[in-house]
Input
Amino acid sequence: MTRRLVYLSLTAVVFFSAFPLYFSVVVASSDTSALSDARLLPGAHLWDNVVRVFDTVPFGTAMLNSVLVSLSITASVVLFSTLAGFAFARLRFRGRTAFLVFIVGTMMVPTQLGIIPLYILMAKIEWTDSLRAVVVPALVNAFGVFFMTQYLSEALPKELLEAGRMDGCSTQRLFWHVVLPVARPAASVLGMLTFLAAWNDYFWPLVVLSSPENHTVQVTLSQLRSGYVTDYALSLTGTVLATLPLLVVFGLLGKQIIGGIMQGAVKG
Amino acid sequence: MRRVLAPLLALCLLTSAAACGSEAAKDEKVKLTIGLFGDFGFKPLYDEYKATHPNIQIEERVSEYAAHHQNVTAHLATNTGASDIEAIEVGYISQFTAQPGKFHNLLDLGAGNLEGKFLPWKWQQGLSGDGKSLVGLGTDVGGMAMCYRNDLFAQAGLPTDRDAVSKLWPTWADYVKVGKEFKAKRPEAFFESSGNMFRAMVEQGSQGVYDKQNNLVVDSNPGVRAAWDTSVDAINAGMSAKLTAWTPEWTAAFEKGSFATIVCPAWMTSYIQTNAKNASGKWDVAAVPGGAGSMGGTHLTLPKQGRHPKEAYELISWLTAPAQQAKVFKATGNFPSAPELYSSPDITGFTKDFFNNAPIGRIFSDSAKAVKPQYMGPRTGDVFTAIGSGLGRIENGQQKPDEAWKQVLSDVAKLK
Amino acid sequence: MSDRLYRWDLRASPYLYIAPFFVLFAAFGVFPLLYTAWVSLHDWTLLSDEHPFVGVANYRELFGDPYFWNALGNTLSILVLSTVPQLLFALLLAHLLNRPLRGQTFFRLGLLLPNVTSVVAVAVIFSQLFGRDFGLINAILESLGAGRIDWQNGTASSHVAIATMIIWQWTGYNSLIYLAAMKAVPRDLYESATLDGATGLQQLTRITIPMIRPTIIFTVVVSTIYGLQVFAQPQLFGGGGPTGITGGNDRQFQTLSLYLYEHAFTNGFQFGYASATAWVMFAVIVLGAGLNYLFVRKIRSTS
Output
């Protein structure tokens, strides 16, 4: 495949990927609440709509809550998944396969129904209507553990670990000095995906967080599309605003994957 | 944990209720939370209320329609997390009135003397099956009219004046006849989908899809079958645009003017106005065939887990009082459920220039007044959904009318 | 480090490292599981206070309901239509990205945009694409002389449309996962292959795919799991309202998750019946993920 063709096809994919987001910006900058089918260029009303969003809902508080929730979940998921992935991929212990199968198995439980018993549980320990109820159950997940296990079992050279053992490294030192650097590309991808999922989570926060001052961004946004008549300009302005932090995080973590290439090149 | 809690709880029960929060002392601040699905136009009213009730704080919790009701259900099922006041829309109300134990009985809180303030059928929708407890007080009602495109009517050689149009269709059979005349001249559809029309017909009858003992009568009530047949007749004549309500395509159809009439509750007028901006003056409002009807509307309820029933009751009885309903109507267009307003000039004089200055206040008042109280069984909303799907299958050519009806009956029989 | 400490470290560390998952699962995962299993044996509506025990009646009713089998069939059909092209396409994209290119960050960010786009925008865009009367695709079909397609009301057409939404949303996501794995493949393997005159495609099938096999297994298993639980796309495709939940008037695109949701939250709040559905769904997913796992392993051993 020629270089030009590669660039062309990648650009085409990005174009299709970006179009709905671009369309959101178009609607968000228009002056009507309705969708106009023929419109393809942004209007001049973005700022008015932004002001309306901030006037209608406590958007700032919600952003702050979401940043708090998503950052703590992401940090924790990446760390614990890498630890567990390392153990499953390269350490020997009794029951390894069974434990891993069990963890993957928990992903297969349909989620929508767990909401009610989980809510009962949260009510018992009096965690309802607090951010803890959203953060704590999400601190580790099967997806992350499985992901890191699979990645490390192909990317972590056994010889490197053995050399470390020879030098008398404890498992913990091996983790920090050998495993973490190798895990970087995958850890940053996992970080992005986790942040994304935490940021977009809607169903559970909606049930468990009732006070407006505790709402996350997605819960707050749902208010913008309530009522008999959906104000699309207002609603999509809100979602565009809520997307900005994601783009920042992606930019930062996206660079980390490139950092990983350098590492891989040195190690390889 | 439990070991510590149990004696505490016992202590609570022994000492007066005041210590444990059930009833607040007079000068103590009471925070009331109110869960709504959208802008009910209450915000300015709260300030007014707080001026006369300095000890009350009000916190509004708004979410989106489906999410709100699912949330209320989860919170009632787990007996925790509900707001002091929860709004429930008429599509859900009968499932909740079937479980009056989950709510404070408003009759015990003094609602008995308010009955005359509300439309009788609106009042009845908030009652439990045995009539002994009142679960909710009504806010708005749909009212019902028929919105129509006067430009399309003119092109089809039909009258365009709203009184003349109203005279075209005293009954639904007449409406379908007009539709046939329209279709003979015009390529546009006559209405957007048959489900709304079916629903309007059934709700105008003295009996709906349930009898008073909560038995389903879809099969045996001739009114239901007649409404079905009329709808099928209209579908077969190609009158339906085969759209599904609330989809973006449905919304686009308003702007494109691809159908000529729509069954029109009061709030629908705001919807048309927002979504068909360029059609100003082309839409107008006539009476609905059959003379009366209502679609949509809400009740305010007090979940049993709320700890301030007295204060909450005081607030909802004030919010739903005629004076406040009139203010809400003028601000948002939500049509009041208080019949004494239907003769007040505030309401009857209300017109909308978008609809050629149609006197929609008077039209919706006439329609709401004429609605006959009809008993709603526990699963009325689901029954209508099942029948609507059946009509949809005919519209889309997926089934013949007989097959569709058979499947509707078996679907409905599964609703317990 | 003393010898005893060293041995203790070897033995205990693995358990310590996997402990956080199990601690949290014990705290927040076990109870919901057992609870729904218990509920599934009862006639349990959410709002009522009485929940009579009915044994396996919910399961029997479920297996006797043609709508359940219909939902299962739709789910499998949408799964195949969406997962296969999505993973192949993702692999190819990652392969294209796994070379020195200008604007790497730009392309990578671009690929994830479908995942940050709000559901409202997605619903609006796709209904404008697949709309019957005013949809873009139908307008193109018509201008080419082909007839309009009523995307929503046909079984096959609705499945294709929903699969398109899924492919659009998750391809970039999977290609990033592949890309991270490809970064770990030693460069010199490719260099010697290039010296031997291997084409790009040969490098992909002979070096990359075998080297990142664990990650491929990961994506296949995870896509199967998530694909069997697909909920948002068919619901949005149906307009979000009651027609979305039943998957069209004829249930032509109702998936298992929508069926479960219909019974739990819109159709009488039948928590017991919905719990039984959840457990049967769990069995289906275990079966599906297991079969796919074996399938992916087999491909490798025969090649």
User: Anything to note?
Assistant: Chain A touches chain C through 98 residues (CB under 8 Å). Chain A has two domains: 1-44, 60-267. Residues 60-267 of chain A form a domain with the MetI-like fold fold (CATH 1.10.3720.10). Residues 82 and 222 of chain A are 34 Å apart (CA to CA).
